[in-house]
Design brief:
The structure holds 2 protein chains of 2 kinds. By secondary structure, chain A is an alpha+beta fold. Helices cover about 35% and strands about 35% of the residues of chain A. Chain B has a domain of about 180 residues: Cell Cycle, Spindle Assembly Checkpoint Protein, Chain A (2-Layer Sandwich), CATH 3.30.900.10. Classes of the chains: A alpha+beta, B alpha+beta. Chain A: This is Autophagy-related protein 101.
């Protein structure tokens, strides 16, 4: 099975990095989250309800929709904050990328550890620009807002192709497909990683891998 | 054909599509309310959340949607459309978007209704949630309030895209294949908003012809009035409930099976419960008597006083629910109090008849006294103009009058001018003193010698520190009463002004004056060796000085 890969690029001002990334990540996760599964007898299950909420950006003329889950939002904000700090400290040209990868776990026999097989990867390439005047910043607010609108339309288009999605798992296998650690929603298993690149495109700083779900599982 | 589809599947599919259509309308209208929407996730299924999404049901909107559908489902050639339009306080309106839920003939026989179709419809609703925030009308709807409102209209049948202007764009939200056809959800939106921005600042009344033509081609003119995209619940005094509010509502308690698809179990249970009775108010009405609007334009701002307009509105579809008296906000109220100013109480002006009255009505004040929908004809002049005998325009006009020395109401002689500039216009003193004759302008005619007093000394002294516009030494010199910006009379008597006047025209630097500049550079160069010799004598002093610095 091939892994689906989508790449989005955004050019933003420094203070817009977090909001732009959160907008994209939350839009993707909105489509890749379900309600909590409740397994019953006879192999049936019911699904909880996913709430949504509108989030206005402070530095971009844009509003996005995310699932109503504080835990999920916190997890995303944490990693986006780390990315932003790394970008700022790198001192490079302000180029970096963040990857949101959905994967399935495949149990292997002992002594091999479980295999993580990605089935969809979203990569957001971020280019930070520096602006001098307030007028430029105002224009940037609007332009980045429009660009993010286009990105959301692109994301929705991909989502509605109805390509491969993992099969709905049995109760014993649910943790191989979904992240069941959250209280109120259940996204597909995902991990977020990022790297900062210099102008040449090579990785300057250490490639940091944040295995959010995996570290907790282990 | 439906031969392969079991009857249970068929029933389920019809139900899914019906509720999908209703939820689609809810999402679209709620996204145009002008507010942020927030619903909570719930880990335990409540059974009433279709497609596992927490989407509130506004009863009025459900009612409208059901009325439009009239028991039918979207099918080939019969699409469900939600039209979003904008209406300004002056009465102009413009279509912004048309959302279409269509069905085409492309069937997917293999797909599992109770499982895959359901989940895909859920995904499509999530996409709709995202896309509704992304079209241009969203930002417009967030800013609705005083100058314009957003209205919606639901109709069923052929899609009408004529009202969107030229060059409208379309975005496809998504498709879901089913055994009976493919459900497609898309949006066509206007990109040419030039009409609105030009209109907003026009002072001429709207052209009636445009308004009439706007509604000519509607397929179901009598059954699809416009409604505002805002929602208010009635208080205790609510009068009429919707006549056809559902008594029972089907809920969807879905159980999914993890066993192979052939053994898929899907239960849908019906739960009967009453929807709360007078939950909604209605929209309000514009008095149509004096306007050329068609009767479809059933409503406008919710803040208009419904009772006043209750007269003569028999042709409109909705009963008026009077919301007065309920001061407390209902928990479901989605209106922003700041915009609306709370529940409308007795208006300050009756509204009937002419268009002028309609415009006046637009400034109906709610209980907190806030005004909204300011009409263009009621622009208020700033107070400073009131002093002017001309009495028009802005301070700019007055300033201009001073500058160009217009003779007429503003300027007759010095006395008038002094009066004029007594106005507290900031930076008035910086206005060039056109009325001075050039002969007396010290900048044009440099003083004879730089050592003499400041050329304006005389005038400054005569001006004195009183700050009053008195006479001065120069007859042709009309003294303007200076009021420096940010300086008040009552705090200190024109200290700042005096200071400024004193140092306004400093003497020219000697090195820059032309007379001294007339000395040739050659003389300077010649005197250099002498100067150097002098300095060399004092070298030791210089060195000692430098050492003290270190």
């Amino acid at each position: 099975m091939n892994c689906r890969a989508e790449v989005l690029e955004v050019s933003v001002e420094g203070r817009q990095v977090e909001e732009a990334l959160l907008a994209v990540l939350h839009t993707v996760l909105l489509h890749r989250s379900t309600g909590k599964f409740h397994y019953k007898k006879e192999g049936t299950y019911s699904i909880g309800t996913v709430g949504t909420q509108d989030i206005d950006c402070d530095f971009i003329d844009f509003t996005y929709v995310r699932v109503s889950s504080e835990e999920l939002d916190r997890a995303l904000r944490k990693v986006v904050g780390e990315f932003k700090d790394a970008l700022r400290n790198s001192g490079g040209d302000g180029l970096g990328q963040m990857s949101l990868e959905f994967y399935q776990k495949k149990k292997s026999r002992w002594p091999f550890s479980d295999e993580c097989i990605p089935w969809e990867v979203w990569t957001v390439k971020v280019h930070v620009v520096a602006l001098a005047t307030e007028q430029e910043r105002q224009i940037c607010r609007e332009k980045v807002g429009e660009k993010l609108c286009e990105k959301v339309i692109n994301i929705v288009e991909v989502m509605n192709r109805h390509e491969y999605l993992p099969k709905m798992p049995t109760q014993s296998e649910v943790d191989n497909v979904f992240d069941t650690g959250l209280r109120d929603v259940q996204p597909y298993l995902y991990k977020i990683s990022f790297q900062i690149t210099d102008a040449l495109g090579t990785s300057v700083t250490t490639t940091m891998r944040r295995l959010i779900k995996d570290t907790l599982a282990l | 054909m439906d031969a392969d589809l079991s009857s249970q599947d068929r029933k389920d599919l019809d139900k899914f599509i019906k509720f999908f259509a209703l939820k689609t309308v809810q999402v679209i209208v709620q996204a145009r309310l002008g507010e942020k929407i927030c619903t909570r996730s719930s880990s335990s299924p409540t059974g009433s959340d279709w497609f596992n999404l927490a989407i509130k049901d506004i009863p009025e909107v459900t009612h409208e949607a059901k009325k439009a559908l009239a028991g039918q489902l979207p099918a080939v050639g019969r699409s469900m459309c939600v039209e979003i339009s904008l209406k300004t306080s002056e009465g102009d309106s413009m279509e912004l978007e048309i959302w279409c839920l269509e069905m085409n003939e492309k069937c997917d026989k293999e797909i599992k209704v109770s499982y895959t179709v359901y989940n895909r419809l859920s995904l499509l609703l999530k996409s709709l949630l995202a896309i509704t925030r992304v079209t241009p009308a969203y930002r417009l709807s967030r800013k609705q309030g005083r100058e314009y409102v957003i209205l919606y209209r639901i109709y069923f049948g052929e899609v009408q895209l004529n009202g969107l202007g030229e060059g409208f764009q379309t975005v496809r939200v998504g498709t879901v294949g089913t055994p009976v056809g493919t459900v497609t959800l898309s949006c066509a939106y206007r990109v040419n908003l030039a009409f609105m921005s030009a209109r907003q600042f026009e002072r001429t009344p709207p052209i009636m012809g445009i308004v009439i033509d706007h509604f000519v081609d509607r397929p179901y003119p009598s059954s699809s009035p416009m409604h505002p995209c805002n929602y208010r619940t009635a208080g205790e005094d609510a009068g009429v409930a919707y006549p056809s509010v559902e008594d029972s509502q089907e809920v969807c308690t879905t159980s999914f099976s993890t066993s192979p698809p052939s053994q898929c179990v899907f239960t849908v249970s019906k739960a009967h419960f009453q929807t709360p009775t007078p939950v909604v108010t209605d929209t309000l009405r514009v008095p149509v008597a004096g306007l050329a609007f068609s009767h479809q334009l059933a409503s406008s701002r919710l803040s208009y006083q419904p009772t006043l307009l209750g007269v003569g509105s028999a042709e409109l579809a909705h009963p008026v629910v009077f919301a007065a008296g309920s001061g407390a906000a209902h928990p479901h109220q989605l209106m922003v109090p700041g915009k609306e100013g709370g529940v409308p109480l007795a208006p300050s002006q009756p509204a009937h008849g002419t268009q002028a009255d309609h415009e006046k009505m637009a400034t109906c004040t709610p209980s907190d006294g806030a005004h909204y929908i300011v009409t263009p004809s009621s622009s208020e002049d700033p107070e400073t103009v009131s002093n002017s005998s001309e009495g028009r325009g802005s301070p700019h006009d007055i300033l201009e009058a001073i500058l160009v020395r217009k003779v007429g109401a503003l300027v007759n002689d010095s006395v008038d001018q002094v009066t004029m500039t007594n106005l507290d216009i900031p930076f008035a003193m910086f206005a060039p003193k056109n009325f001075e004759l050039e002969d007396n302008d010290p900048m044009v005619n440099p003083p004879d010698s730089p050592d003499t007093d400041s050329p304006l000394q005389g005038s400054l002294h005569s001006d004195g520190s009183s700050g009053g516009g008195g006479g001065n030494a120069h007859d042709d010199f009309v003294m303007v009463d200076f009021k420096p910006a940010f300086s008040k009379d009552d705090i200190l008597p024109m200290d700042l002004g005096t200071f400024y006047r004193e140092f306004q025209n400093p003497p020219q630097l000697s090195s820059l004056s032309i007379d001294i500049g007339a000395q040739s550079m050659a003389e300077d160069l010649d005197s250099l060796p002498e100067k150097l010799a002098v300095h060399e004598k004092n070298v030791k002093e210089f060195d000692a000085f430098v050492e003290t610095l270190q």
